[in-house]
Amino acid sequence: MKAIIYCRVSTTKETQETSLQRQEEELLSLAEKEKFEVVKIIKEQASGYEIEREGILELLSIIKEEEIYAVMIQDETRLGRGNAKMALLHFILKEEVKLFSISQMGELQLSESDSMVLQIVSIVEEFQRKLHNIKIKRGMKRAVKNGYQPEKNLTNQGVHSGRDRIEVPITEIVRLKENGLTFAEITASLKGFGYQISKATVHRRYKEYVEDKVE
């Protein structure tokens, strides 16, 4: 199972370098105990109240693009503080990535207050998603009524080669990727058309396509 180690200290003082090194060593030890494959170690010196941090942006990007099982931190304050912490917790957990901490020597257990805030955020987000889907459905119905045929926008639909390899519309994946969608968003879009595939499969097929083009 793949994991990312994230270490942070709040200032750029040289004395903080020791803290960063200690966090890394302790988290590597925990990763070994949990039998995780550490694919990236991110260390930065920045305020936890800021969300625009190079290290945290890299962390979120990797989570979006790859199949990451866990993010490892010393404790939840290393991830962030205040509103920044809640926003990052929501993003990471929404991507179904687990958090492991040194402070709890295993999977992070959120406080009751933090869990309540995240639950409220999820409820609000769910209603926003429902409203968005209602708008899409209404627009699609009008388009179909005016002669639009959505099935013509996807290739390989309904094709089965008799192999275990999942058939996916690679041209649509490439088009959506070129339009700036993440692999998670592309996966959600394809599932809406009946393709029951994972983000990992979408990511792998896109990489195969790019490699074939280079060759």
Model description:
The protein has 215 residues and is an alpha/beta fold. The protein folds into 2 domains: 2-110, Resolvase, N-terminal catalytic domain (Rossmann fold, 3-Layer(aba) Sandwich), CATH 3.40.50; 152-215. Helix content is 54%, strand content 13%. It has helices at 16-34, 54-65, 76-79, 82-94, 112-145, 170-178, 183-191, 199-214, and strands at residues 2-9, 37-45, 70-73, 98-101, 106-107. Strands 2-1-3-4-5 form a 5-stranded mixed β-sheet, sandwiched between helices. Helix 7 packs across helix 8. The radius of gyration is 21 Å and the shape is globular. The two termini are 31 Å apart.
Provide a concise account of the structure shown.
By secondary structure, the protein is of the alpha/beta class. The chain has helices at residues 16-34, 54-65, 76-79, 82-94, 112-145, 170-178, 183-191, 199-214; strands spanning 2-9, 37-45, 70-73, 98-101, 106-107. The chain folds into two domains: 2-110, Resolvase, N-terminal catalytic domain (Rossmann fold), CATH 3.40.50; 152-215.
Keywords:
215 residues; alpha/beta; Rossmann fold; 5-stranded mixed sheet; 5 strands; globular
Question: Would you give the CATH topology of the largest domain?
Answer: Rossmann fold
Strand order, main sheet: write it out. 2-1-3-4-5
Highest-level CATH class of the largest domain: Alpha Beta
CATH architecture of the largest domain: 3-Layer(aba) Sandwich
Strand fraction: 5-15%
Strand segment count:
5
Structural class by SSE content = alpha/beta
Could you give the distance between the termini? 31 Å
